[in-house]
Each structure stands twice: as structure tokens, then as C-alpha cells.
Amino acid sequence: DLPHEGWTEVREVETMHGGTGHSEILIEEMRVNKTQMLGGRGQGHLLGQYRLGPARLAHCMRWIAQAETALDMMVDRSLNRFAHGSLLAEKQGIQWMIADSTMELYQAKLMVLHAAYKIDRKEDFKAEVSMAKHFVANMLGRIIDRSIQVHGALGYSTDTPLANMYQHARWARFADGADEVHQMRIAQRTIAAWTDNGSTRSATGDLPI
Ligand SMILES: Cc1cc2nc3c(=O)[nH]c(=O)nc-3n(C[C@H](O)[C@H](O)[C@H](O)COP(=O)(O)OP(=O)(O)OC[C@H]3O[C@@H](n4cnc5c(N)ncnc54)[C@H](O)[C@@H]3O)c2cc1C
Predict the structure, then answer these.
(1) What is the 146 CA–ligand 1 centroid distance (Å)?
(2) Which of 43, 135, 145, 205 has its CA 20 to 30 A from that of 5?
(3) Residues 154 and 86 in one domain
């Protein structure tokens, strides 16, 4: 419960996308009454981990919506910008960006739906949430980046929301677990699946295909 003796907010940290309400704090000689303790002593990380499964998917859902907006804008711009003899939408280089973004967004949605399905069924969902979180965070950055590319200087300007979306998206690759930490855990599970069962199948979603 704040304010509390021994708890000092040193400063609010300004980030790439402005102030976020996240602060540098100083904890000194702080005493917490037993009645104020959540969970048991030394179990704070456990509580955090419990929250992180579903919360990571909630981030993914927001990021999917952002990526979809970026793709909508990419297609709309490509149908309206005429350059070098044709619409951008008629150029193969632009179609590849649209196609790659479409496939990645589809993959992202399926991964999130499958992880949510496992949470709903009270099955172990750690691996699927971890893979979804990593994939969706990176997909988001790539699709916004391509959308900016298709918009040219307009995309770099603050006349469209893309520049702001790009700044926000960068955060996704380390919040709720940095890319490399998820990759480390994913690899550990795949190696364990192989050593325990002689197959990596259970580590790749354990799907019936
Ligand atoms: C605005 C904002 C809001 C945030 N909100 C949340 C939130 O609500 N919940 C949340 O969980 N996090 C949140 N974060 C992220 C969190 O604050 C940390 O940034 C994150 O946990 C990474 O820790 P760190 O910054 O100390 O980086 P470090 O631990 O110093 O890691 C730095 C880099 O080192 C590399 N690294 C670290 N460990 C390994 C490893 N084992 N193997 C290989 N490479 C490694 C990675 O590239 C990593 O990005 C937020 C961050 C920001 C900026």
C-alpha cells in the first residue's frame, strides 16, 4: 500500500515512447506487515509467473490488432500511390511485403488461439505462450516496418500513426521476457522433449498433424 515508509519514487523514467508511469524506485529499510503480504515469503516470483501466462497473451492480442492496422494501412496505401508507371499494389516487391505480412499475421493469430485453447482447458500452456509471445512481438515490428516502407516518407512522418506504433512496438521484444530468454526456454523444452521421448513433437504444440 503506497505511500509507505521506506519506499521512495526517485523519478519517472522517460522512454522511447514518452512517459509511461514507470519509475525508478528506492526501497530502504522497508517493513511490511504480515497482513500486507501476498502469498508466502520468498514466493513473489511464483505469483509473477502465474500472472505472466495469460498476461502475455493479452499483450499478443493487442499487438495483433496493431499489426492488422499496419497491414490495412499498407494495402490501402499501395492501392492509392502511383509511382514508376503503376500502382504500388501492382509491383511484385510490394506484393511480397503484403504476402509476408499476411502469412505472419495468420501464424500469429493461430499461435495465440492455440495457447488460449490450452489455458482454457487447464493444460500446461507455458511453451505455447512463450512461443506465441516471441513470435507475435517480432511479427509486429516487421509488419509495422514494412508498412512504413510502403508509405515512404509519409510513413516516417508523424502524419500517420505508424511512427508512434513503431516506437511502441520495440518494447514488445523485451517486456514480459526478452526474446533471447524465451528462445533459451523454447530450446530447453525442445531438447528435453527429444531426450525424454526421442521426438521433438511435444515441443511444437503437440498438435495432431
Ligand atoms: C515501458 C515498459 C513497461 C514494461 N512493463 C513490463 C511489464 O509489465 N511486465 C514485464 O515483465 N516487463 C515489463 N517491462 C520489461 C522489464 O522492465 C525489463 O525491461 C525486462 O524484464 C528485461 O530486463 P532488463 O531491462 O533488466 O534487461 P536485462 O535483463 O539487462 O537484459 C538485457 C538484454 O540482455 C539479453 N539477455 C538477458 N538475459 C539473457 C539470457 N538468459 N540469454 C541471452 N540473452 C539474454 C537480452 O537481449 C535482453 O534484452 C517493461 C519495460 C518497459 C520499457
Answers:
(1) 25
(2) 43
(3) yes
- Tens-digit pLDDT string for the chain (209 aa): 788 899 999 999 999 988 888 999 999 999 888 888 888 888 888 887 777 788 999 999 999 999 999 999 999 999 999 999 999 999 999 999 999 999 999 999 999 999 999 999 999 999 999 999 999 999 999 999 999 999 999 999 999 999 999 999 999 999 999 999 999 999 999 999 999 999 999 999 999 99
Q: How far apart are CA 172 and CA 59, in angstroms?
A: 8
Q: Are residues 161 and 99 in the same domain?
A: yes
What is d(CA 113, CA 116) in angstroms, rounded to the nearest whole number?
A: 5
Nearest-CA residue for ligand 1 atom 13 is: 175
CB atoms within 10 A of CB 149: 14
* Atom 36 of ligand 1: nearest residue by CA position: 180
